[in-house]
From TrEMBL:
The protein's name: Sulfite oxidase-like oxidoreductase
InterPro entries registered for this protein in UniProt: OxRdtase_Mopterin-bd_dom, OxRdtase_Mopterin-bd_sf
Pfam families membership: Oxidored_molyb
PANTHER family named in the record: OXIDOREDUCTASE MOLYBDOPTERIN-BINDING DOMAIN-CONTAINING PROTEIN, PROTEIN-METHIONINE-SULFOXIDE REDUCTASE
Ranges where the Oxidoreductase molybdopterin-binding domain occurs: 35-179
Region (Disordered) location: 1-22
Entry superkingdom: Bacteria
SUPFAM superfamilies attached to this UniProt entry: Oxidoreductase molybdopterin-binding domain
Length: 197
């Protein structure tokens, strides 16, 4: 006769140091969205950065794909307590996109096809911290995961990595986006558990 109790598991289960506090490891890729999934044809896709002077820097899909492409291996963490470790992406660094952008502002509002918005500090997008990703795990990014292109800001909770991204608008002050207006934290650092206001 054998039995198992929670008190005697045979060995201790050490917590993975790559998991921020309150997170649970998953091996699939959960899909969470604030609304319906938009279908965006790359022939009609455009990404832009708008400065405080009204200057617009924009790229269509062909121009975007001609930019230097980064391979990104990173962990991702959702505010709903799941984390996926060792994910692989391809995308364009925000450092590349901001090369010729002149701004005195410290914040941006990310805008997505479908109307979603999220606010970010410019410091969270530059110096190798963020990308516009168009591939996941060696395949074009599925629409349900934000394809054809999404923001990827892996050091923040994943709601900051806006799906179906279409542009960034510079802001002088930090103003809340969609989820932030509904109680989510303005910054969203998973290591500090910045989930809610």
């Amino acid at each position: 006769m054998s039995f198992i109790t929670r008190g005697f598991s045979g060995r201790s289960h050490e917590r993975d140091e790559r998991l921020p506090p309150g997170q649970t490891l998953v091996h699939d890729f959960p899909v969470l969205s604030a609304g319906p999934t938009p279908e965006i044809d790359t022939a009609e896709w455009e990404f832009s950065i708008t400065t405080e002077t009204g200057g617009v820097h924009s790229w269509n899909w062909q121009q975007f794909m001609a930019l230097p492409i980064d391979e990104v291996d990173t962990d991702i963490h959702c505010v709903t307590h799941w984390s996926k470790l060792g994910t692989s992406w391809r995308g364009i660094s925000l450092d590349t996109l901001f090369e010729n952008v002149e701004t005195q502002y410290d914040y941006v509002m990310a805008h997505s096809y479908g109307g979603y918005t999220t606010n970010l500090a410019l410091d969270d997008l530059l110096d190798g911290k963020a990308w516009i990703a168009f591939e996941f795990d060696g395949e074009p990014l599925d629409p349900e995961h934000g394809g054809p292109a999404r923001l990827l800001v892996p050091h923040l909770y994943f709601w900051k990595s806006a799906k179906w991204v279409r542009g960034l608008v510079m802001m002088g002050e930090d103003e809340p986006g969609f989820w932030e207006q509904n109680g989510y934290h303005l910054h969203g650092d998973p290591w500090k558990e910045e989930r809610y206001w």
